[in-house]
Amino acid sequence: MSHQTDPEKRRAIITATIELIAERGFHATPTSMIAARAGVGAGSIYRYFADKETLIHEAFAEIAARMHRTILDGYPRGESIRRRFDHFFCHMANFFMSNPSDFGFLRQYFDSPFGIALRRDKIMEQECHNRDCESIGCLVQEGIESGLFKDMPMLVHVSMIFGALTSVARDYILGFVPLDTPLIHSISDSLWEAMLRRA
Amino acid sequence: MSHQTDPEKRRAIITATIELIAERGFHATPTSMIAARAGVGAGSIYRYFADKETLIHEAFAEIAARMHRTILDGYPRGESIRRRFDHFFCHMANFFMSNPSDFGFLRQYFDSPFGIALRRDKIMEQECHNRDCESIGCLVQEGIESGLFKDMPMLVHVSMIFGALTSVARDYILGFVPLDTPLIHSISDSLWEAMLRRA
DNA sequence: CGCCCCGGAATGAATGTTCAGTCCGCAAAT
DNA sequence: ATTTGCGGACTGAACATTCATTCCGGGGCG
Predict the structure, then answer these.
(1) Which of A109, B11, B34, B138 has its Cβ near the most Cβ atoms within 10 Å?
(2) Is pLDDT larger for residue B4 or for residue B135?
């Protein structure tokens, strides 16, 4: 398996998978439909991926890599928490807004048992070591420990931020709400003020 | 159809549907499994509901009615925006936390085409008339118009609140984060501060 | 230089499984 | 005895996966 002969074809399958899962969800997209959109035979999928589940996981990995690259591009490493938070928030919002299929796929994935297990692992891992990473979790932890942010569990802060961000991004993608760069910055400000310890 | 003979059985089917959809999602829960958990025959479901889709909708309606009752219980109608917001937020959080199956079902439902269409209708409806309703939308609108809240689209405020709330509730239900009454009030405070126009 | 053959990638019809929804005989109630 | 609700075997459709076959490019032989 995975004697990848034609990387073009592999990519086409992954792209089709992301688009269709974003539109229809995992259980509502037959592999035959994926094959049709990718322009390959039904059986060809199984030359590149062991089964449907593996295909999903590899599609996720592909998005995660792309997103990570985009978000950390120009990350203001040594600067203030404030500036780093804004960078994180706005870059992530932009990624979601300009890649609606990726966004839709990620929503599906993180709501599935796969995604939940993955998150559980991430949380465990974070609790043990990993004090130097470039994640929003560490950034928030830094803010709490310095007394800048409210004294709530780090995960509550993070969950609020992600929840708010993804909810607004979703409404934008569905056309429920207009969103532009200044408004995204306002939202970033709002959530910053939400985290701040009461003056 | 719906020659309601045994309301007990009807309720058992709805309860089983809610639990299973919450756990497994719409497309991954066969009607046969619903029947088994409800303790009825596979065919009996179709005595009470026209088809699977109808069953889902009626399950949603049942939850919505129950939630509406719970949340509006003791609503401080004439009081300050602040107090009304806190009531809304905390009652909703409590409902989600103590009814995890309902919460899981609602997530699934609102992510499905049904739920998206429903929300689109709600938004349209809100834009036309409905200036006197007891929804969080009207409350936020009131805050914006009085200059108390930031001048962002009402839907952005609402989306942030719901996004943050449901995200935190989900993490609580999954056991990722502890949550108690004081912490919920802190979260309510945080989101209130996020909405407030900059002092 | 042209022809043929061969290895392996690609294909899509076939397979076995699972599903939503139907139907029919039974049993309890009147 | 008749009616009425019930269960679960049943049906046709749709699914994931497989596999016998086709297709293609390149390398060796005449």
Answers:
(1) B34
(2) B135
